[in-house]
């Protein structure tokens, strides 16, 4: 099993490597909502399905320490957590999401 330091490094590497990273659970409707929003704006995303990984619960615990919330999805744009599914939808609906994806 990976150490806490290794898990934290995994999260840090994942969110810094790709523009959009979604920590998700495959059966979660809010996760699907977030993924659908990025599909609408044709933004490629990296999805990490926590329920399909042996270390998923440990990753989720470490995400909670980093972001202050345990729920999924946890969406990162350019390395910054922007919230969950309804947060991403609100950014999209207000026109604020697409400018965050440029550059």
UniProtKB/TrEMBL annotation:
Q: Which UniProt keywords apply?
A: Disulfide bond, Electron transport, Glutathionylation, Redox-active center, Transport
What cellular-component terms does GO give this entry? cytoplasm
Entry-linked Gene3D superfamilies? Glutaredoxin (3.40.30.10)
Q: Which GO terms describe its molecular function?
A: glutathione disulfide oxidoreductase activity
**Domain (Glutaredoxin): residue spans on this chain:** 20-82
Q: Name one GO biological process term.
A: cellular response to oxidative stress
Q: What does this protein do?
A: Has a glutathione-disulfide oxidoreductase activity in the presence of NADPH and glutathione reductase. Reduces low molecular weight disulfides and proteins. Glutathione-dependent oxidoreductase that facilitates the maintenance of mitochondrial redox homeostasis upon induction of apoptosis by oxidative stress. Involved in response to hydrogen peroxide and regulation of apoptosis caused by oxidative stress. Acts as a very efficient catalyst of monothiol reactions because of its high affinity for protein glutathione-mixed disulfides. Can receive electrons not only from glutathione (GSH), but also from thioredoxin reductase supporting both monothiol and dithiol reactions.
UniProt cross-references to NCBIfam families, sorted A to Z? GRX_euk
PANTHER family, A to Z: GLUTAREDOXIN 2
- Say which family it is in: Belongs to the glutaredoxin family.
Share what the entry says about its subunit structure, partners included.
Monomer; active form. Homodimer; inactive form. The homodimer is probably linked by 1 2Fe-2S cluster.
Name of protein: Glutaredoxin-2, mitochondrial
């Amino acid at each position: 099993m990976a150490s806490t330091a290794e898990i934290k490094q995994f999260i840090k590497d994942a969110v810094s490597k790709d523009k959009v990273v979604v920590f998700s659970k495959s059966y979660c409707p809010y996760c699907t909502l977030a993924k659908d929003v990025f599909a609408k704006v044709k933004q490629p995303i990296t999805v990490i399905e926590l329920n399909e990984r042996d270390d998923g619960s440990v990753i989720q615990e470490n995400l909670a320490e980093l972001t202050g919330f345990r729920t999924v999805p946890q969406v990162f744009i350019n390395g910054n957590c922007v919230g969950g599914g309804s947060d991403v939808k609100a950014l999209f609906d207000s026109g604020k999401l697409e400018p965050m994806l440029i550059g």
